[in-house]
Amino acid sequence: MQSVSAATQDSSKKRRVGHFTAPFDARFPFTNQTRNCYQNYLDYYRCLKIMKEKGKDVQKCEWYHKVFKSLCPTSWINQWDEQRKQGIFPGKI
Amino acid sequence: MPYATQLSLQEATGPAMEEVVFLHDHVLLLTFLMSLVILLFATTAITATVTHNDPTEEVEQLEAAWTAAPIMILILTALPSVRSLYLMEEVFDPYVTIKATGHQWYWNYEYTDGTNVSFDSYMIQTQDLPNSAPRLLEVDHRMVMPANLQTRIVVTAEDVLHSWAIPSLGIKVDAVPGRLNQLPLATSRTGVFFGQCSEICGANHSFMPIVVEAVPLNYFEQWLTTEQ
C-alpha cells in the first residue's frame, strides 16, 4: 500500500524548477485554510508598503504573493483588491 | 466507479480510500467476533438447564469481565480510526494546489500556481452524452490532476453549502461559503474517478457531478500549458 507520505516524497523529487505551490505552514496545520490565505494577502501588501517606505527591493515580498495566489480563490482576491482601491478593506495593511 | 448491485465500498484508487477500506474491514472483523461470542452465550443460556437461581449471589468476576471487554473493543476500534483520520487529513508537501468552488449548480476549478487556469465543470445532459459515458456523472470539463503525486484540494463555495466528494479516492470536503477547506488528494494510478455533490444545495443538487482525471505528470504539465 502506498502511504500518503510516500506520495509526498515523490512530489518533492519530481517538482520542476520554478514550479511553486504553498507549502505546509505550521501556523495553519488544520483543514481550515481561510486564515492562511487571508494572512498571506495581508502580509504581501504590508510587506510592499514597508519595503517601499524604506526604499528596499520589493522582490522579497513575492513569497507571500505566491502563497496567497496559490490558496485564495480568484474571486476573493478580486474582491479584496477592489476594497483596497475604494479604501474599505477591513484588514490592517 | 460503482456498478449495479454493488454491495460494498468502491475499489480504492488512492491512499486515503485504502485507509477507509482498512478501517472498514477491521471494524467488521471485530463486529463478527462480537456477534459470534454473543451467539455462543445466547445459545448456552437458551439450552442450559437452570441449576440455581439466587439473585443475591456475588458476581464480581463477571462484572469485571463485562466492563473490561467493551473497553478493549472500544480501544481496538478507536486507535486505528484516529490513525486513519489524521493520515487522511494531513497535507504534507503537495505538488500542486487545485481550488474547487461550488456554485448553484456546477463546480469551478482553478490552477493558480504560476498559471491562470480556471474553468467551469457542468454535467453533460443525457441526450448529449457520448457513447459509454455514465449518465448524470460525466462533465463537460474534467478536473485534471497528476497521478501518484500528492495534490492539495482547496474547497469553498460561492453561494450555499456544497460538498466535494470522490468515493473511490476516499475524499469528502464540505464547501462552505467564506471558508477554505483543504485536504490531500492522491491517486495510486491513472484513471477517471467520479463523484457527486454531497451536501443538499438546491434544485439541481443531483446534477453537479465531479469528475477527476488522473494523468501522468508530463501529460498534466502539457495539459496545464494548453489550457492557459
UniProtKB/TrEMBL annotation, chain A:
Coiled coil: none annotated. Disulfide bonds join 37-72, 47-61. InterPro entries: COX6B-like, CX6/COA6-like_sf, Cyt_c_oxidase_su6B. It comes from the Eukaryota. Keywords: Disulfide bond, Mitochondrion. The keyword Mitochondrion applies. It is found in: Mitochondrion. Component of the cytochrome c oxidase, the last enzyme in the mitochondrial electron transport chain which drives oxidative phosphorylation. This is Cytochrome c oxidase subunit. It comes from Python bivittatus (Burmese python). The gene is LOC112540478.
From TrEMBL, chain B:
The keyword Mitochondrion applies. It catalyses: 4 Fe(II)-[cytochrome c] + O2 + 8 H(+)(in) = 4 Fe(III)-[cytochrome c] + 2 H2O + 4 H(+)(out). GO terms for biological process: ATP synthesis coupled electron transport. It comes from the Eukaryota. It is found in: Mitochondrion inner membrane. SUPFAM superfamilies: Cupredoxins, Cytochrome c oxidase subunit II-like, transmembrane region. It is a multi-pass membrane protein. InterPro entries: CcO_II, CcO_II-like_C, CcO_II_C, Copper_CuA, Cupredoxin, Cyt_c_oxidase_su2, Cyt_c_oxidase_su2_TM_dom, Cyt_c_oxidase_su2_TM_sf. Residues 1-92 form the Cytochrome oxidase subunit II transmembrane region profile domain. Residues 93-226 form the Cytochrome oxidase subunit II copper A binding domain. Its main location: mitochondrion. Belongs to the cytochrome c oxidase subunit 2 family. Component of the cytochrome c oxidase, the last enzyme in the mitochondrial electron transport chain which drives oxidative phosphorylation. The respiratory chain contains 3 multisubunit complexes succinate dehydrogenase (complex II, CII), ubiquinol-cytochrome c oxidoreductase (cytochrome b-c1 complex, complex III, CIII) and cytochrome c oxidase (complex IV, CIV), that cooperate to transfer electrons derived from NADH and succinate to molecular oxygen, creating an electrochemical gradient over the inner membrane that drives transmembrane transport and the ATP synthase. This is Cytochrome c oxidase subunit 2. It comes from Python bivittatus (Burmese python). The lineage of its organism: Eukaryota, Metazoa, Chordata, Craniata, Vertebrata.
